[in-house]
Write a structure and sequence with these properties.
10 helices, alpha/beta, single chain, globular
Length: 190
Amino acid sequence: MRLVIMGTSLTALYEWPAAVAAGLEACLGHPVEMTLVARPGAQSPWGLAQMPRVAQAAPDIVVLEMAINDADLRDGIWLRDSAASHRAMLGAMQALPAPPQIVMMTMSPAEGPRGWVRFRLGAFYAMAVELAAEAGLGVVDLYPRWLALPRAQRGLEEDGLHPDPKVAEPLIAGALLPYLAASRGVACGP
C-alpha cells in the first residue's frame, strides 16, 4: 500500500507519519510505502503545486493537513482562497487514474503571538472539515481533541505553534492509525 502524507511543519518535523506508516504495516500485514510531502511554512497553494509529486507516488491513501499556515495573518491566505486551493488539490487527486482515499486532517491550536496571528484558525479547520463532508471524504478532526486538553497539557509552551512531540505524536497517531486501519477493514491501535 502507498500512503502519502501532505502537510506543514506539524507533519514535516515530527515522527508521527513514520509511526502511522509502521503501525499500518503491522496491522495490515503487508508493506506500506510512505511518501512525505511536507515542509515548514507550507500553505495550500504550495500543496497544489505538489500534485505532480503526489500523482507520481500513485497513492492508495492521501492524508492532507495544510490549514494552519493558511490561517496566518502575516503571510497566510484568505479563507476563500484556502478553500479554493484545497478544492483544487482534492480535484487533482480525484482525477488520478486510480483516485486515492483522501483524508482531511486538522491539527493543534496555536497560542501566544503565533496564535494571535492565527485568530481565525478555527474557521480554517472548520473549512477543511466542511470540504471533506462536501466531497464525501474522510476526516480526522484533531482540533477538538487538542482543545479538550487543559492548556498546560497541550505541549505548546516552546513556541505556541509546534507541540512537544511527546504530546503530539501519541495524540495524532492514536487517532489517525485506527481511522486508516478501520478504513481498510482492520481494527488497529497505535
